[in-house]
Structure formats: structure tokens, C-alpha cells
Design the sequence.
């Protein structure tokens, strides 16, 4: 038989596609169903955060930080206010940091729940998605009773918090944790160890540790490759060093180290670690005034700070440059999803289109975070 | 290693590469280096067994509003647990700097971002295109003297 | 009296017309019920309540409202589509599903056409669906649709083999391709049904058939042709309004066809589980539809529990697991038939 002539086809995945988790566009070069190359195109959700920051004063930027990674708003605020406080050189009461850590960890759980749920959806399992969202709703209820908002909180201010914890928060948080632990077990039975799910994700999108580091990957994407690196422990900020918890890393138990299943499972395991931190923080929550240290006028001296923090998606950092005025000279957000997404072509070549979905989902990006 | 030791080690290797070293700045110490040497310094930083800067955290463009643009490299080492900030200053009229993409792949997108928003050209970058803004956008928005274009495909831009 | 309509009206124009309309009279209300069931079952599996307002009582009118909406919707044909094929495809897909109803013995007194090659006919017309889906995917002029259509063609053709082999095992036991005869061979109490009666051979056969039939109807976990998270909606991405409703209707009609065939082959068809108790033409219809609906329920249950296979894993399952098993099974059943006389 004569040689069959085949042609590569360019397939445009996104910006409107159910599984790109937002307005990501990936230009796929496919040979049949095999991905030959994947070129991400971003910027569809660019909201000029850095340009806005030029015209706003320090406190006004907090709500914009909320909107960067809209699934991890508390973590965004946390990193930013830590930076501003470092520039101002002010010490906040311990209660403030405890509450911030509680909120940040609840936010991490909420964000991971979205990630896990939508990942199940990507693989074709619809039910775990709703289980995850049911539990996430309860966390959002906690946020709502604290600051009145469910998604974009503007809760952490430079020097303090907008509100103290409401009466009954601690009890409600404990009740949630009590409900949530069995729910996670149910999720593992339904999804994480499901035969088909494991088949779809193990040995797919393998990311070796050295490539992950070279591409500046961070968060679960990096830890999925077995690198024990978590800024909460490696460069402790806030009060994280007061709690007893572990860094979880991928084990490669279902396939190769650094495959999609590892990246997924790191998030599941991290939820348990976050619960541990929250429990300890609730137990040892100090008394104090959460607004005592809020400065009347934020006017840092000339200087600059690069503040790193561990957001649900990885290393979230702000580079804040002050020229001594009320407005920052420059704020640059170092978004974890931005760097994590840049390694997509590296780990998707040679897999099928269906795997592509699994890979994008496992890298866990938020387009608000990528495009800022 | 602290910033002083890192500085000394670079100084030993590149005696005339360092323009400015500041450790008494409000918070983060930084080293300003000569732009044409940034690539060589990066190779040295990443390969030197004492330094082992294997992780490029971020590249930020800057407009110092004194006729100079700048690029700020925040790098760290996962193994040695230290970090340093490198800076280069470039004249606005000829903003070119060697790319460090071949050393840290993180730089690929971060340099594209600086190119997009500041108009800094990174020599030797394999794919120097805009990344966040549309390909046919005019100007570099984060430059302090930036004026938004009047119309973009018939749409009024300054609202 | 295999078909009471042709018995009274004769096999002329009127008899044939009324006789052929009966499945349609069944399919439309059945589809509404099945869609409503799917909404409610999935909701309760996911800790929700599902539609509650339309029609007041547990949202019973929700499918009706959906259908009304689909009928009113603008019929969009993409400018670049191959128009004739595009328009024809949904009809062909539905015809494939609908035609299969002609050979389903709903009750001892009603079978659309009591042909001797009944089961063979059902397998054959079900394959027409492939052509319809390929037409839909190709004519939409959309890469996602095309990929979905290609996947469907590969999948349906692959799974025809294990499902046909499974059917063959039953045919060997009965010695007839006529579905009424197959039902009659299982009369008496429920332990006479093939799934229990010829244990363990036909029990295994049933599982092979059921898995293969899930793949043939593009139901989860084999719904890769329309895998909404990968291919947007697969072959029917570009369809809207009534044409989309036809695909939808065909899917639900097909679900019942495979469920009814499974009921006939393995669960006694229109036989009552309790010997002659509650049997007869009307009860026969009741039993067949009930058995079919139970199997439809299992299909729905699986859909809301399992993730989706990947296309190569799907092929692997068909060619390397199901087909060899089905062949072995045929051999075992054949041996058993020969030895038992």
C-alpha cells in the first residue's frame, strides 16, 4: 500500500471551552488525536492590575488583589498586606495574624475544593464536583458571617483586619471541620481512588522535578513532582512556624512521580494539613484588638520589598516599590499560575487530546491569576 | 549565604560587573549589575556550587522615570535557601538586555511580559512576542510616559 | 396474535400505520419521564433536590418546558455547514433508534413486526446511527464535531462485536433469532430467566452485553464521542433547537432499546416473574417496560458515578477484554448446549 499521507491539524482550544478553566486559549497542533505541540495564548482576562496600582494608594489596592486570583482572595490579600507592613515596618497584634492564617487556610481548602471538583468534571465525573461545592459553600458561609462577602472580601487591611471574628465563628468553624473530614473520605472513595480516574490521570503529563524548578513552578504543581518545598515552612511568614503540620509531596504511587494523579492528590492531602493548622489556630487564638495597628495614613519610606507567600496555587509574591508617597511607585504581582502555565507545552507533547484536559486541570490555573 | 557574601562572590568573578550594591535599603538588598553582563552573571549564579541559584522567582520591568528603564530579577536557591535581587538599568532610547531564558525557563514568559508592558527587548529570547496585550496594541502601558491610543479597531480606548 | 392491531385492522395501510405509530406514542412520553428521572436521580445522588418548581410537584413538567423551549428556539445552520447532510443527520440518527422498536416484543400481543430475524434486525438498524452521527460530525464543518464523529464511529463499530457475540450466546441457547421465541423460552418463574437460569454462562454474557450496550448508546463511562469537557459537545456541537432535541431523543430512545433487548434476552422479556401470576398481554407490556426502566435506571446511576474513559482505553477494553471474553463465553455456552442436548 502506498504511504498514507497525513496532515497535522491546528485545533483551537478556547478561549471558550468547558475545560480550560476560564478564558485560556491553547493552540493545539494535533496529529489525529495526538498532541504534537501546545501553545498557550493568554491575556484574555488581563485587567491591568499593575497599571491600576499606579493610580491608587496602598489601602485601595487590597480589593484589586482580591480580584487577581478570585479563588484565593484571602491569600492574595495576605501576601499584599504582609508586604506593605514590612515596608511600613509595623508589628501587628498576634490575634490578627492568627485570624489571617485561619482565613488563608480556609481559603486554601475552598480553592482546592474547586480545583478537585472541576478536575473530576474534566475527567467526566460530575458528582464529586457538586460534593466539593457543597462543602465549599460552608466555608463561604463562614467568610460571609465574618466580613459579609463570599468571594472578594477586602478583609485584610495593612495593619489589621476590617472586622474581628463574629460571635460563634469558632464553634461554627469546628462544626464544619467535624463535618468535613468524613466528606473528604467519601470524596476519596468516589473519585481519587476510582479505577477509571486513576487510569486517566496516572502516567499522564509527567513533570520531572528539575524541569519544574527550571520553569519556576510552585505549589502543588511543584510538590506533585516530589519537591518538598512550601514557603509556609521553607521561608516561614506570618505565624505558620507556630503550628505543627507537614509538607505533602507526590509519591508516584499510582504511576510515575510527577504525573497528574500526584498533582491532584497533593491538593487532597493538603486539605488535611490545612485543617490541622486551622484546628491549632482555633485552639490557641489569642485575644487582642484587630484594628489597633492600622495606620491612619499609609506612607512607607523609600524602599522596596519582594514578599513571597504560599497561595493555593503556589508562590504568590508582590514586588512593591515605594517612592515615599501615598501611592506605590510600582506593584508587580508574581502570579503562581503564570509560571505554572508556562510549562504546559513541556508536559503535554505526545499525549492525547483527552489527556490535554487532564493536564490543564492538574496544573490548576486560575485565569485571573495568569492574566492579572 | 547572606547578601554581602553573595555580593562578594559575584565581585570576585566579575570585578567590574557591579554598578551598585545596596544593603541598607528599607527592606530587600539588591545588586545593580551592568546589563551586558547579566547573562554571564546568571550562568555563574546558577552553576556556582556555593550559590546554586536554581529558581528564578520573578522578572519585573521598571520605569525609573529618569530616562532609564530597568529589569529586576528576583532569584533564589532552593537548596541553599538564600535569595538576592539583581537589577539592570537600561536607557529608554535603547532598552536592550540579554535574555536569561536559556538558564531559567521561567524567564520565557516573564521576559515577554516585560517586553509587552515596558518595551524592553531581550536579546536572544526565542519568542519575543506580546503576551498579555493584543499583538497589534500600540505602546507599552507601564511606562510612565504612556498615553493610551485613541482607537483600537474602531473602539474608543480612553473611556 | 402477535400484533393485535394488524389482527383487527389487517396488514394493509391502516394496520401498518397504526402499528408503526405505537412505538412513537411510547417513546415521547417515555423520553420525558426518563429525562425527568435523570434530572431527579442525578440531583439526589449529588445532595441536591433538582427541579422543584415547574409543574409544582417535584418539577414534573421540567422536561416538557425544556422541549417547548427547544421547539421555539431558532434553528441555526452554520454558514459553512454541508447543508443537506446537516439537516438529514438528526433525522437519520432518530430513525435508527426508532426503527429498532419495530422488533421489540412489548407484550405477547404486540410486536411491531414478528420477524424471524428479530434480534439480527435490531443489531442491523442500530448501526444506522453511526452513519447519522458521522454525517452530523462531518457536515458541521467543525473540528470538534469531526473528532467526536470519528470517535463515535470507532467506538460503535468496536462495541458491536462484543455485544453481537453476547447476543449470539443467547441465540444459541434458544435456537431462534425471533425475540418472541426468546421470551417464550424463559416462561415460568423468574429463576427460568436466562440471567439466573443458565448460571453462570449467561450471567457473564449479560454483563458483557450490558457494558457493550452502554458504549453503543454513548452513555457514561463511554460517553467520549460527546465528552463535554473535551470535545465541547462532540458531534452535535453545532446543533440547536429541534435538531438538537432529535439527538437527545434518539439517545434516550436508544437507551431503552438496549435496556429492552437486555430484558428480553436475559430477564424474561414480557414474562411475569411469578409464573402465570399477573401475566397476560397487558401485564406483559407492564413487565417489559418495568424491566427496561430498571436497566435504564442503572445506566443513569452509572453515568452519575463514574468518570470517563479515554479513547484508547475504551478501545483496549473492547478489543482486548470484552471481545476475548465474549468469544470464550460463546465457546463455553456452545459446549454446554451440546453436552446438555
Sequence:
Amino acid at each position: 500500500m502506498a504511504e498514507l499521507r497525513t496532515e497535522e491539524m491546528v485545533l483551537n482550544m478556547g478561549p471558550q471551552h468547558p475545560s480550560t478553566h476560564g478564558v485560556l486559549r491553547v493552540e493545539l497542533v494535533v496529529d489525529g488525536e495526538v498532541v504534537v505541540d501546545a501553545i498557550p495564548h493568554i491575556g484574555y482576562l488581563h485587567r491591568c492590575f499593575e497599571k491600576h496600582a499606579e493610580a491608587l494608594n496602598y489601602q485601595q489596592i487590597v480589593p484589586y488583589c482580591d480580584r487577581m486570583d478570585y479563588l484565593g482572595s484571602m491569600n492574595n490579600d495576605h501576601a499584599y498586606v504582609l508586604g506593605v507592613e514590612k515596608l511600613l515596618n509595623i508589628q501587628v497584634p498576634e490575634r490578627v495574624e492568627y485570624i489571617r492564617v485561619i482565613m488563608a487556610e480556609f481559603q486554601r481548602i475552598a480553592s482546592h475544593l474547586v480545583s478537585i471538583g472541576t478536575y473530576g468534571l474534566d475527567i467526566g465525573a460530575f458528582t464529586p464536583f457538586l460534593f466539593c461545592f457543597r462543602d465549599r459553600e460552608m466555608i463561604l458561609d463562614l467568610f460571609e458571617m465574618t466580613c459579609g462577602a463570599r468571594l472578594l472580601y477586602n478583609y485584610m487591611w495593612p495593619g489589621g483586619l476590617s472586622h474581628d471574628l463574629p460571635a460563634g465563628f469558632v464553634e461554627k468553624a469546628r462544626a464544619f471541620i467535624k463535618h468535613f473530614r468524613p466528606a473528604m473520605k467519601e470524596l476519596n472513595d468516589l473519585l481519587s481512588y476510582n479505577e477509571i480516574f486513576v487510569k486517566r490521570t496516572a502516567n499522564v503529563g509527567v513533570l520531572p522535578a528539575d524541569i519544574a524548578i527550571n520553569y519556576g513552578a510552585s505549589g502543588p504543581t511543584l510538590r506533585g513532582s516530589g519537591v518538598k518545598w512550601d514557603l509556609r515552612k521553607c521561608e516561614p511568614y506570618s505565624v505558620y512556624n507556630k503550628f505543627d503540620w507537614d509538607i505533602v509531596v507526590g509519591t508516584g504511587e499510582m504511576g510515575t512521580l510527577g504525573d497528574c494523579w500526584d498533582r491532584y492528590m497533593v491538593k487532597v492531602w493538603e486539605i488535611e494539613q490545612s485543617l490541622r493548622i486551622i484546628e491549632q489556630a482555633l485552639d490557641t487564638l489569642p485575644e487582642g484588638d484587630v484594628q489597633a495597628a492600622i495606620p491612619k495614613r499609609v506612607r512607607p519610606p523609600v524602599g522596596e520589598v519582594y514578599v513571597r507567600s504560599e497561595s493555593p496555587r503556589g508562590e504568590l509574591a508582590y514586588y512593591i516599590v515605594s517612592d515615599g508617597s501615598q501611592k506605590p511607585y510600582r506593584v508587580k504581582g508574581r502570579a503562581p499560575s503564570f509560571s505554572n502555565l508556562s510549562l504546559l507545552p513541556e508536559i503535554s507533547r505526545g499525549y492525547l487530546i483527552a489527556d490535554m484536559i487532564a493536564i490543564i486541570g492538574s496544573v490548576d490555573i486560575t485565569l485571573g491569576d495568569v492574566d492579572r | 549565604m547572606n547578601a554581602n557574601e553573595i555580593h562578594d562572590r559575584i565581585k570576585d568573578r566579575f570585578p567590574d560587573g557591579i554598578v551598585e550594591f545596596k544593603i541598607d535599603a528599607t527592606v530587600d538588598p539588591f545588586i545593580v549589575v551592568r546589563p551586558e553582563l547579566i547573562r554571564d552573571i546568571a550562568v555563574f549564579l546558577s552553576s556556582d556550587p556555593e550559590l546554586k541559584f536554581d529558581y528564578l522567582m520573578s522578572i519585573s520591568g521598571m520605569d525609573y522615570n529618569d530616562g532609564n528603564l530597568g529589569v529586576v530579577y528576583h532569584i533564589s536557591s532552593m537548596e541553599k535557601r538564600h535569595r538576592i535581587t539583581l537589577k539592570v538599568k537600561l536607557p529608554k532610547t535603547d532598552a536592550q538586555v540579554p535574555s536569561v531564558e536559556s538558564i531559567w525557563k521561567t524567564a520565557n514568559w516573564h521576559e515577554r511580559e516585560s517586553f509587552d508592558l515596558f518595551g524592553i527587548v531581550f536579546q536572544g529570547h526565542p519568542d519575543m512576542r506580546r503576551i498579555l496585550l493584543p499583538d497589534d496594541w500600540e505602546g507599552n502601558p507601564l511606562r510612565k510616559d504612556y498615553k493610551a491610543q485613541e482607537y483600537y479597531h474602531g473602539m474608543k480606548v480612553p473611556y | 396474535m402477535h400484533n393485535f392491531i394488524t389482527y383487527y385492522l389487517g396488514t394493509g395501510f391502516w394496520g401498518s400505520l397504526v402499528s408503526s405509530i405505537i412505538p412513537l406514542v411510547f417513546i415521547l412520553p417515555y423520553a420525558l419521564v426518563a429525562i425527568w428521572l435523570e434530572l431527579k436521580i442525578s440531583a439526589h445522588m449529588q445532595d441536591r433536590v433538582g427541579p422543584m418548581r415547574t409543574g409544582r410537584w417535584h418539577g414534573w413538567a421540567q422536561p416538557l418546558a425544556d422541549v417547548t423551549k427547544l421547539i421555539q428556539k431558532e434553528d441555526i445552520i452554520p454558514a459553512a455547514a454541508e447543508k443537506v447532510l446537516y439537516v438529514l443527520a438528526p433525522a437519520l440518527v432518530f430513525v435508527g433508534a426508532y426503527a429498532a422498536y419495530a422488533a421489540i416484543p412489548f407484550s405477547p400481543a404486540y410486536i411491531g413486526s414478528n420477524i424471524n430475524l428479530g434480534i439480527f434486525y435490531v443489531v442491523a438498524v442500530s448501526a444506522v446511527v453511526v452513519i447519522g452521527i458521522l454525517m452530523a460530525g462531518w457536515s458541521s464543518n467543525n473540528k470538534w464535531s469531526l473528532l467526536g464523529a470519528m470517535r463515535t464511529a470507532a467506538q460503535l463499530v468496536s462495541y458491536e462485536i462484543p455485544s453481537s457475540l453476547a447476543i449470539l450466546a443467547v441465540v444459541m441457547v434458544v435456537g431462534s433469532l425471533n425475540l418472541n421465541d426468546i421470551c417464550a423460552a424463559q416462561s415460568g418463574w423468574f429463576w427460568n430467566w436466562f440471567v439466573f437460569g443458565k448460571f453462570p454462562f449467561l450471567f457473564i454474557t449479560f454483563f458483557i452485553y450490558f457494558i457493550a450496550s452502554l458504549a453503543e448508546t454513548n452513555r457514561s463511562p463511554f460517553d467520549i464521542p460527546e465528552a463535554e469537557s473535551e470535545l465541547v459537545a462532540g458531534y452535535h456541537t453545532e446543533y440547536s433547537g429541534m435538531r438538537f432535541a432529535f439527538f437527545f431523543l434518539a439517545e434516550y430512545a436508544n437507551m431503552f432499546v438496549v435496556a429492552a433487548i437486555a430484558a428480553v434476552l436475559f430477564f424474561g422479556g414480557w414474562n411475569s416473574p411469578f409464573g402465570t401470576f399477573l401475566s397476560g398481554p397487558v401485564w406483559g407490556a407492564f413487565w417489559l417496560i418495568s424491566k427496561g426502566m430498571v436497566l435504564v435506571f442503572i445506566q443513569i446511576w452509572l453515568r452519575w458515578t463514574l468518570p470517563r474513559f479515554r479513547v484508547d482505553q475504551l478501545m483496549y477494553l473492547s478489543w482486548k477484554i470484552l471481545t476475548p471474553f465474549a468469544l470464550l463465553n460463546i465457546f463455553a455456552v456452545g459446549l454446554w448446549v451440546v453436552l446438555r442436548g
